[in-house]
Amino acid sequence: MFNYNSLRSRILQFGLAATVVSMASCNNEEDITPDSGLEADRWVTIAGAVMGENPGDGNGGTKIFAVSYEDAINSEKEINVFDNGTPVKSNRTARLQVSEDGGTMFNIAYGGENGGEYSRFKVAGGSSYIEEDVPVNISQYVGTGPRWSKLFNGDKNGIAVNVADIAANNATDETVPYEYYRGTATVLDLNLQENYIEDYKVYELPLTAEEELAGHCIFRLDAPVLNQAGDKLLIGTWMRKYDPATGEREGDWERLGTKTVVVDYPSLENPRIITSTQANGDCSGYRSNVNHLAEDGYIYQATNRDTNGSHILRITPDNEYDNSFSISLDEALGLTDVYVDAWKYVNKGIGYAVIRHGEDNQGHLVRIDLNQQSAALVDGIPNDPDVRFNQYQGFLVSGDDLLVAVAPLGKDGNVYVLHSQTGEVSVGAKLINKPGNHFIGVF
Q1: According to a count of CB atoms within 10 Å of the terminal CB, is the N or C end of the chain lower?
Q2: What DSSP line would sit under 4-41, residue for residue?
């Protein structure tokens, strides 16, 4: 049984020590109260993914490098992440989180020997970090490849989630009538300030009897976000379907409406599932959070793997889908099979998404107007077939502006400043690239 006090005591014994290491700085700013710009001396981190065996796979790890905000938006500056940056501890592309002031980096290693190991660093500029001795490993609860996000509650907590051991109810006894496929879900609350596991809960997440009899189940959880009241946690889902007769995973199936799990916070109890009637895609994202709380109290959500292309949905302050609201990006952009790789809410009803569409892997930027329920492609970035956003995760909000890294695969690029209220685009620092590598964020 989990012993909260014992674990906290053990972690706090080590939490005061600090070691200086040489690493690159990272800054995953996601402030949802954008009432002012960032300070010019705030650290801004550029993150790049190193190729493994194939160009663009990102399996060679992640490198990061910190510059001032002023330098990040200066087109006369150059940033060489891959030569001057430092690796982040992760077997694959790291999923990085950074404090709201940009001064602290949080990371949970993804995969490999260190998978599930939480670490925290003070950003000191360039490739320098001060690594704190915080030996917390959450792999025994959420596996070695946990999905997680920092909550925007003053950098107090991060939420890691996992679904494991998906099986039929009669997997070990064929004489029992089939009823469902289910996995075991874990939701874990990590205290980012005092460095201990604050709480965790384990439960099954049943769908309706009809949905489960057809073989549907929740395959993955991701993209947790706290509602405006701070009393509910909303978690995105990735759905899967099995053939009840054979147990084989189905590749082509009629999807259910988009589903989100809602649990009480901070107790993590009383899970329930809400369903949208406006889209049928997943809302778990990939490398970045696709659920964003806006100043109007609504949570805006991007879907992917939707049969009619990605949508932007919204969830009310009462934690229910608003089925009167939906933006079909296929319809808004006049494209087919739009796929949102990542997106970010900025301010005053405006957000931006990085997308691809159809069988074309080229990445594009899209400006989304939530007030008008409309969207348009952004001009002013490279129109190059080798632009990729498939592992993109880091956007930096400063007031009405959004900073994003754009570069073709293996080619130099730039930081771009998107002025959300005017739709204008400014060119920032030059990003020096290497063959097979790509950039995954401005933090």
Answers
A1: N
A2: HHHHHHHHHHHTT-EEEEE---------S---S---TT
